[in-house]
Every structure is written in structure tokens, then in C-alpha cells.
Please model this.
Amino acid sequence: MAVVETERHGQIFVVRINRPERLNALGFEVRSLLADAWSEFRESKDLEVGVFTGTGRAFCAGEDMKESLENSQPGGRRPDREDPLMSGALEKPVIAAVNGYAMGGGFQLVEKTDLRVAVHEAIFEMSEAKRWLLGGYNHGHVASMPHPIATEMAFAFRFTAQRFYEIGWINRVVDSENLLPTAFEMAEHLLTLPPASRVNTVAMMREMRPRVAPELEQLASVLNDHGAKSDLMESRQAFAEKRTPNWKGWDDPEDRYRTPTLASLNTEYRILPEYGMMS
Model:
């Protein structure tokens, strides 16, 4: 069976990650087939609304750690083909039907959707703080979360579906037997709208999402390199071996006290409000 399955139901296109034995982890094959599926959806003149789900007890567990270790490539190998869902090139609405765990890269898949339904048992985690040298600073911000909640997300705390529903990140929480029927009900509502209204509203709502300021993105890029890169593979190795990681922290211990800040970057860059950060 394919690790990514697709179905057509009239104008509704279902994309399902089908790798339950690996909790639908994002290996190279899964990423490649998702890019193919969303490209098919984007290019079709007959399909208008997407529904995105998974098989088994996970929607998607994120990065395939085993594959990353085998290839010595933190984050995993990416296909050459653009995935229009992830790049933002997909102009059609997508509804997430979250059937279980959505962790790390799986969380990011849900984040790219426009409407979200989840089962009560679903668990969410933005795992970057566990796997890289900087936590997921942007995810709570772009979701307009209060700063303490955004900080909790950045530090890779886990969230239940109910809590995410209460703070506005999920539209519906349902029993498992109602997951796909609810997603289809929402899709069918979208199909009752005038086509131009549906397309234009998707475009407008996406443009209204908050964005991280360019100077903060520049700081994030620097912070992502501030620390011992060997800890990236150690994180994944410890996860695979089910042991406590042996962190190095910094190649130069003094770097612990030299954390980059906007102020320190301003000694190397000048900031022009009209253009962002200029070297």
C-alpha cells in the first residue's frame, strides 16, 4: 500500500498519510508523495477543497529519526519538487482532520491548513527545541497566541486538542467516528459559497496571518547556529536509543555567555525600517 493515499469525492480531495507502523513519520518517500498529491490538487480544475488526515494513532509524528540517522542528515532529506501546501503556493482551502499525534513536522503540516478538526485524543507538540539549537519561536506568533502560550509552544510543551480548541488553534474537537464526517461537512459548506468568494477569502485570510519581523528572522538565523551542532545528531540518536541525551552545549564554553541579541547584531548590521536588515 502507498504511504500517501488520495481519494476524490466530487470536488473534495482527501490526502492521507498511511504509514501507521512509523506513526506516519516524514521520511523522504512520504515527503515526495505529499508534494505529488498537493501538486495534483493544485493543478486539478475539478477539485476545490482538500481534507488532510492520517492512518492509525498519529496524524504525523514529524521527522523520521531513523532515516535521519541513517543518512546523517538532521531534518531529513527533502524532495526536489515543491510541495505547494508547505510553500504557500496552494490557492485552495485545506481542512486538517487530525486523528492523533501531530508532532514537530506533523504540527507544521497542520499549521499550514486553513481549518482544523481533531479527535479528543490528539496531542500536539512543536518539537524544534528538542531537535535544533532554537525552539519554534514563530509558531505561536503567527497563530496570534498570547506571548506566554507562544513561549510554551516554543519550548516544546505538549498541548491537548481540547486546550488548543480553547485557545483558538483548532476549530472543532470531535469523537473519532465523527472526524472525517465533520471535515466533510465543513468542506461541503465551503463548496456552497460562490467560487470567487471562496478563493478570495482564502487569499485574504492567509495574508492576514501575522509575520515575524525581518530583523527577528535574522536573529533567529544566527541563534540557530549558536551552539554545538553535534547536539543535533545526539538528540536524534538518544531518541532512537530511548536514553537521556549527552549534551555538549557549546563548542566554546564561553559562548554560553555570548548569546546573540538584536543589540549585538546591530553592531554588525544597520537596520533601515523600509528595507529590514542590511549588511
